[in-house]
Amino acid sequence: MNIENYYTLQDGALNVSREQASAFAKFVAGDFNPIHDIDAKKFCVPGDLLFAVSVAHFGVSQHMRFDFESMVNEKTMITMPARTVRQAGLIDQNEKSIMSIDCSGENTTDKAFVSNLIEKYVQFSGKTFPDILMDLMKRKDVMINPARPLIIYRNMAVHIDAFPSGDLTLEFAGASLAAEGKKGSVQLEFDLHVDGKQIGHGTKSMVIAGLRPYDAAAADKIVADYNQTKAAGLAASQS
Question: Given its phi and psi angles, is residue 65 left (phi above 0), alpha (psi -120 to 50 degrees) or beta?
Fold first, then answer.
């Protein structure tokens, strides 16, 4: 994957078009959320694309945390901090914070390691909905509002012991949901391995809103509709 295919530099600022964001969401992350559609009324650049661009820019540090603070659309012009900065933020043309970044420990810019980590993570993250979240909500006997599903990407963090060469894999390590009224906090856990040996661990945190009692028929329809949209999107890309 060449991350430079998914953004454009204009006068020193980074911009993501609807076409670039949608292609990344669907064909890199496998995320067919309608909010990333080219013609979406309330369009949003995937948070995982901002993560990917940042990691490609800064490299991979042993300890990294990314906090997502505001939505990005095709009109947003993003200023990237200097590569040597360890605590930084992405800001837009109005100096509004988009994402804060905190890095510490050793750092690698090895292209293979950086690219593999980006690809493995965004592919995992793209499966959050419906694969992981719907099963988690079923076990907690709650579900999102089918008419107005609201899932907000809050932050992700990763801790890596070393940067060995080899086959990097990411494995889902568990999920939790703490519901309070109509809101819920979700945390996903994952482990990183190289050639079968664990080298790190990470988390992805989200907020979900509009929770209601679980309804199996309504939940099944959410999943069926999503899968139908995904199948249609994949078929269209191959025609």
Answer: beta
Specify the long-range contacts of residues 114-119, CB closer than 8 Å, at least 24 apart.
114/55, 114/56, 114/59, 114/60, 115/1, 115/56, 116/168, 117/55, 117/60, 117/158, 117/168, 117/192, 118/1, 118/3, 118/51, 118/52, 118/55, 118/56, 119/1, 119/28
Q: What is the CATH number of domain 3-238?
A: 3.10.129
The pTM for the full model equals 0.93
DSSP state letter for 13: E
The structure tokens listed for 158 are 């990763």
pLDDT tens for 7-51 read 998 888 999 999 999 999 999 999 998 899 999 999 999 999 999
